[in-house]
Amino acid sequence: MSVRSSPLQSALHFACAVLTPIHHLAPQDSPGEAAGLSPKQNSRRYPIRLARYLIAYAWMEAHRTRLNRPLRIAEIGIGSGQQKKCADFVWQHSPAHLHTGQQLYHQWDGFDVALQDDDSLAQAGYHTLETFNADVEQPRSFFRYDVILLIHVLEHLRDPETFMEHLAARLSPGSLVIGGVPSIPHPFQQLRESRLRKKYDQGGHWCQFSSRRVKNILRTRSWTDAEVTGAFALRSSGSPLEDSIRWIHFNLAFAHLFPWWPGEVYFQAQTNPSAPLQPSITPRPSDINASR
C-alpha cells in the first residue's frame, strides 16, 4: 500500500526537483545570465527571478523522461527567448546530456504577437518563428507538439478561459501545457482586474489571476493531471539572501504549499485523452503524422 505524502513533503520534493538541475553547476556557470536576466538579478548566485524558468524546465524534463524521447515544443509568447536560453543552458550542463549526448528536444518553435527584431531573439535559436495573436486568432493546430509553453501570456488575453478550451481541442491527447501568470489572493482578484482594465494600455495586462482562477480553468474535462504552484514567498532582487540556495529552496517550497500567496502562479496540465475532439477541428492527416 502506497503512503501518501503530506503537503509539506510534497512541497519540499517539488523544490528539490526544480533546483536539482542547477545543484551541480560550477560558480562561474550562470543560467540567469544565459536567460538574459538583468545585471542586478545576476549579481547573485540564485536570483529568485530564475524560479519561473526552472519550474518550466523541470516539468519539461519530467515529460521528456515519461516519453523517453526528445520533445517537440511550441512556445507562445517568447519575448527575447529567455525560457529557451535558460533551458538550453541547463540541459547542456545536465548529466543526461554530458554523459550520453541525449537531447531535451528536437524541435522548439516560437510564436508571438510581435516578434522582436534584434540579436537576442536570433541567438535563442528557435527552429521556426511565427507571428500569432492569441486575442484575435483561434489557436492553431498544435497536434504535432508534446509541450506548449504559455509563460506570462494569459494575463494579456481578453478571454483566457475560452482560449484554453480552444487550445486543448487543438492538441494531441496527453500533450503538456505549462503556463505562468501574475497572481493575488482570490478575494482581491476582481477588484484588481477592474483597475487593470481602467488603465489598460496596448500590450498590458487585461486579466488578473488568482490560484483559484487557474485551478478552475484546469478543472474542465479538457485537462487532467493538473498541478498548480506559486514561485516565491518574497522576491528581493540583488539581496544577499539570493546567494544561498536555501533561500530559493524555501521560496519554492513555501509557494508550493501556499499557491494563493501574492506573486506568480505556474501550472502544468495534460490534455485529457477521454475528452472528445470537436468535429470542426479534427486534426488533418498531416498533423497526426507529424505528431508520431
Which helices and strands occur, and which strands form pairs?
Layout: H1 7-23, H2 31-35, H3 51-67, E1 71-76, H4 82-92, H5 95-100, E2 105-112, H6 119-124, E3 129-131, E4 147-151, H7 160-168, E5 176-183, H8 189-198, H9 211-218, E6 223-230, H10 245-257, E7 263-271, H11 285-290
Parallel strand pairs: 1-2, 1-4, 2-3, 4-5
Antiparallel strand pairs: 5-7, 6-7
What does this protein look like?
This protein is of the alpha/beta class and 292 residues long. The protein is built from 11 helices and 7 strands. It has helices spanning 7-23, 31-35, 51-67, 82-92, 95-100, 119-124, 160-168, 189-198, 211-218, 245-257, 285-290, and strands at 71-76, 105-112, 129-131, 147-151, 176-183, 223-230, 263-271. Helix 6 links the parallel strand 2 (105-112) and strand 3. Helix 1 (7-23) packs antiparallel against helix 10 (245-257). The longest helix has 17 residues, at 7-23.
Uncertain regions spanning at least 5 consecutive residues: 279-292
Task: Tell me the series of helices and strands, N- to C-terminal.
Answer: HHHEHHEHEEHEHHEHEH
Please give the largest β-sheet.
Answer: 7 strands, mixed
| Strand order within the widest beta sheet | 3-2-1-4-5-7-6
What CATH calls the topology is: Rossmann fold
The fraction of residues in strands falls at 15-25%
Classify the secondary structure makeup into a structural class.
alpha/beta
